[in-house]
Backbone:
């Protein structure tokens, strides 16, 4: 574990024996803060995620997030540059040093398009979707599930290469539920850790004898695809109006018509967003379909040019 040490100037920190200078605050959540820092040795910018650990359980969760990052070295999963656990003023903090992506999240990009009354071209949607699928595929291959896939948890590099981030909700892909108590435990965990408007139907009312698996990510992936097409999530409005998302997700997704996108893309979305997890495809199938549609879209673009 890397040792961290605050030194005289509050604007400078050490993580794993490397010095970083504080530049500015970037973001603030319920239990975490994100600061922009600069590496003294390499001059690179990093996002320093500081997680407040209120108890042993909180510290363990932060440790799990570190371990999840360490599991992967993949072009579509955000890497971890360093970490440390720090005691400050009687409080424990976990520091995760991550590459800084100046373009921001997929959600930021979609918001800008919406503000301009613009839209995302089909080939761009498919390019980003392909990268998200590749990252998810790597996670599923190792026997894990992301559990909180949404546009704010996808960063975009300058070339639109997506990076899956916020691995704090990740856990084993296959969860066997035996009995009502276990079902309630999973349901309560999902209510805390899986964003409501991107949460799979089977996590709202967990059956007392069932298997929860990586198909929860496929549903969330469908919600992300819908969001790229419509510039808002399929259940964002339901949630904002105070209506029941749990009820809304029991029905197959409705694609507003007329739709500017190809029938192929609409069919892909409908195939992913199926309320019954057993009827949802796996990530390999989605990746294959995406690549096929992408090659079609690129040849169409070339013909148009």
Residues:
């Amino acid at each position: 574990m890397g040792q961290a040490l605050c030194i005289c100037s509050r604007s400078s920190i050490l993580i794993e024996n490397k010095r970083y200078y504080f530049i500015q605050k970037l973001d603030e959540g319920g239990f975490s803060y994100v600061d922009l820092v600069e590496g003294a040795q390499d001059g690179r910018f990093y996002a320093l995620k500081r997680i407040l650990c209120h108890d042993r359980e909180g510290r363990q969760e932060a440790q799990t997030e570190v371990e999840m990052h360490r599991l992967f070295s993949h072009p579509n999963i955000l890497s971890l540059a360093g970490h440390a656990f720090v005691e400050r003023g009687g409080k424990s903090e976990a520091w995760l040093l991550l590459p800084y992506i100046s373009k921001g999240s997929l959600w930021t990009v979609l918001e800008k398009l919406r503000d301009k009354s613009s839209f995302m071209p089909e080939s761009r949607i498919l390019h980003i979707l392909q990268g998200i699928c590749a990252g998810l595929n790597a996670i599923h291959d190792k026997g894990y599930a992301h559990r909180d896939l949404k546009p704010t948890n996808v960063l975009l590099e300058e070339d639109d290469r997506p990076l899956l981030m916020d691995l704090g909700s990740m856990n084993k892909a296959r969860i066997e539920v035996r009995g009502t108590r276990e079902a309630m435990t999973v349901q309560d965990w999902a209510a805390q850790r899986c964003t409501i408007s991107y949460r799979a139907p089977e996590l709202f009312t967990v059956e007392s004898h069932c298997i929860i698996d990586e198909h929860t990510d496929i549903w969330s992936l469908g919600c992300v695809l819908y969001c790229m097409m419509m510039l808002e999530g399929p259940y964002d409005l339901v949630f904002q109006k105070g209506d029941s998302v749990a009820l809304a997700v029991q029905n197959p997704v409705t694609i507003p018509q007329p739709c500017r996108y190809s029938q192929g893309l609409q069919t892909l979305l409908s195939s992913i967003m199926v309320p019954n997890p057993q009827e949802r495809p796996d990530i390999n199938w989605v990746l294959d379909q995406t690549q096929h549609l992408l090659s079609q879209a690129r040849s169409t673009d070339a013909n148009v040019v």
Notes: The chain has two domains: 4-99, 106-300. The chain is about 40% helix and 25% strand.
